[in-house]
């Protein structure tokens, strides 16, 4: 607040931008964790045919990406809601906010559809569940 001389600290669009950058960083962290997980699986010669044996890797590796994604959602969603509340005319605030939530819901729904399509396309026979399941 001292640096920006704004009551809210940073602007709403800056807050949204920080959230989007954190989302990109989180996806990069997820990719690095997946590389690490696959390397550990190859080192101990574990394959998907071995059943439900856990990998010798701590779950804290994924905590990094979840912390980044949580922070990204915090910045993005809070910035979006505050942006619509402060910038929209008073008669349009509830509509703008509800459209924001509706677009988020559509995005979550589409991600579920993509997962289902990828699983269906990568299924090899009745015993194989698919790439993502």
TrEMBL record:
It is a multi-pass membrane protein. GO terms for cellular component: membrane. It is found in: Membrane. GO terms for molecular function: transmembrane transporter activity. Its main location: membrane. The keyword DNA damage does not apply. InterPro entries: MFS_trans_sf, POT_fam. Keywords: Membrane, Transmembrane, Transmembrane helix. The keyword S-adenosyl-L-methionine does not apply. Gene3D superfamilies: MFS general substrate transporter like domains (1.20.1250.20). The chain crosses the membrane at residues 16-35, 55-79, 99-121. Signal peptide: none annotated. PANTHER family: OLIGOPEPTIDE TRANSPORTER-RELATED. Belongs to the major facilitator superfamily. Proton-dependent oligopeptide transporter (POT/PTR) (TC 2.A.17) family. This is Uncharacterized protein. The lineage of its organism: Eukaryota, Viridiplantae, Streptophyta, Embryophyta, Tracheophyta.
């Amino acid at each position: 607040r001292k640096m920006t001389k704004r009551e809210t600290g940073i602007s709403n669009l800056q807050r949204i931008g920080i959230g989007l950058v954190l989302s990109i960083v989180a996806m990069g962290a997820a990719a690095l964790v997946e590389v690490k997980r696959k390397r550990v699986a190859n080192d101990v010669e574990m394959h998907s045919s071995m059943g439900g044996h856990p990998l010798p890797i701590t779950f804290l590796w994924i905590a990094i990406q979840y912390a980044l994604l949580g922070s990204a959602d915090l910045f993005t969603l809070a910035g979006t809601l505050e942006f619509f509340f402060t910038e929209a005319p008073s008669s349009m605030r509830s509509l703008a906010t509800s459209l924001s939530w509706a677009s988020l819901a559509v995005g979550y729904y589409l991600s579920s559809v993509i997962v289902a399509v990828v699983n269906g396309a990568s299924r090899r026979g009745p015993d194989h569940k698919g790439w993502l399941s």
